[in-house]
Automatic annotation (TrEMBL):
Gene Ontology terms: biological process: dUTP biosynthetic process
InterPro entries tied to this protein: dCTP_deaminase, dUTPase-like_sf, dUTPase_trimeric
Keyword annotations of the record: Coiled coil, Hydrolase, Membrane, Nucleotide metabolism, Transmembrane, Transmembrane helix
Protein name as it appears in the record: Deoxycytidine triphosphate deaminase
SUPFAM superfamilies: dUTPase-like (SSF51283)
Positions of transmembrane segments: 255-279, 291-316
Source organism per UniProt: Thermomonospora echinospora
Coiled-coil blocks: 224-251
GO molecular function: dCTP deaminase activity
Length: 324
């Protein structure tokens, strides 16, 4: 494994590891190099949490920053363009700072000798004159949104010196278009349905569950309001019925009291008439005292009957008033 001066020498040599000008000495770290996130050759969600993806490539403006909501995935590439010589290989590993935030990086382990080179006129040159970046498929499987910016270290590269193969062949890479079309299925307009299906399905499922539980909450709330309204209506009807019953009771009580009153008055009249007749029929010789006594009894009887009727009527009225 190359480290220290030999590593710096290897990556400083134009087109031996990196395409000249695509790397930065500030990112040599220990026995390796921090690969950085590019602002192009990306496939990212149109919005955090959206199911559609947009492609950022030569035909679109670069994107210096993007955010992945939980469940989102993306295809990213490195600023560093490779043009590997045939006597070096490299191993790559994820940066734990991203794992610690819940970013899953799906990647291979190796950069092969000759990666990023093509044979032109019998000479091995950087692919398309620019070399080839590395591509990674990433997914936010963490609890919160993750924002990534151009230049962020995304993977660690360690370079190994090897015996050059006898036969030099071009290294195939599935490539940006393949990954985009296979995993993200973006259309010609740069948008479409895609992403890592499992995480997207979990995300969609979560959304569906949230929507369903919100709908059920709304239904429950509506049902509760309906039940409350119906209970209030039943209470109102019971109160109304109670009032009607009370009114009927009061009226019948009044009728009973009035009946008692009439009977009492009638009986009083009958008694009085009988007594008056009896007094009228008394013999002339009956002493004056006896007449006064009979008249007094009649008067006491009449007064007490009237007072009793008045008292009964008064208490009956009071009782009726108290109930209503
Ligand atoms: O995460 C990675 C890993 C590797 N590569 C590049 C460098 C490597 O030289 C090339 C091929 O890598 P690998 O051999 O792992 O991929 P493959 O698709 O299995 O290639 P092959 O079928 O040729 O073995 O792809 C990436 O872009 N990203």
């Amino acid at each position: 494994m190359l480290s220290g001066a030999s590593l710096l020498r290897a990556i400083s040599t134009p087109d031996r590891v990196f395409r000249e000008g695509s790397w930065s000495p500030g990112h040599v770290l220990g026995a390796g190099y921090d690969l950085r996130l590019a602002d192009d050759l990306l496939v990212i969600p149109t919005e955090p949490g959206a199911s559609g993806y947009k492609t950022v490539d030569a035909g679109t403006p670069p994107v210096g920053e993007f955010t992945l909501a939980p469940g989102d995935s993306a295809l990213i590439s490195t600023i560093e363009r490779f043009s590997m010589d045939f006597d070096v290989a490299a191993v790559i590993g994820p940066k734990f700072r991203w794992s610690a935030r819940g970013l899953l990086i799906l990647q291979g382990t190796t950069v092969h000798p000759g990666y990023g080179r093509e044979k032109v006129d019998g000479h091995w040159r950087p692919v398309g004159g620019e070399g080839e970046p590395l591509y990674f498929v990433i997914a936010n499987v963490g609890p919160g949104p993750i924002t990534m910016r151009k230049g962020d270290p995304i993977a660690y590269l360690q370079v190994i010196g090897i015996e050059p193969p006898q036969q030099r062949t071009a290294v195939s890479n599935v490539g940006f278009e393949f990954l985009r079309d296979r995993l993200f299925r973006t259309g010609v307009d740069g948008t479409g349905q895609g992403g890592l299906a499992y995480f997207r399905s979990v995300k969609d499922l979560e959304r569906a569950v949230d929507a369903e539980s919100a709908r059920r909450d709304r239904d429950w709330e509506q049902l509760r309001r309906q039940v409350d309204a119906e209970v209030a209506e039943v209470k109102r009807q019971v109160t109304e019925a109670q009032t009607t019953i009370d009114r009927v009771n009061n009226t019948s009580n009044m009728i009973v009291v009035f009946g008692i009153y009439l009977i009492a008055v009638t009986m009083l009249g009958v008694v009085l008439t009988t007594l008056v007749n009896l007094i009228g029929d008394l013999p002339e010789k009956l002493s004056q005292d006896r007449l006064v006594l009979v008249t007094g009894l009649v008067t006491v009887y009449a007064v007490s009957t009237v007072v009793a009727t008045a008292v009964v009527s008064f208490f009956a009225r009071s009782a009726i008033r108290r109930r209503s």
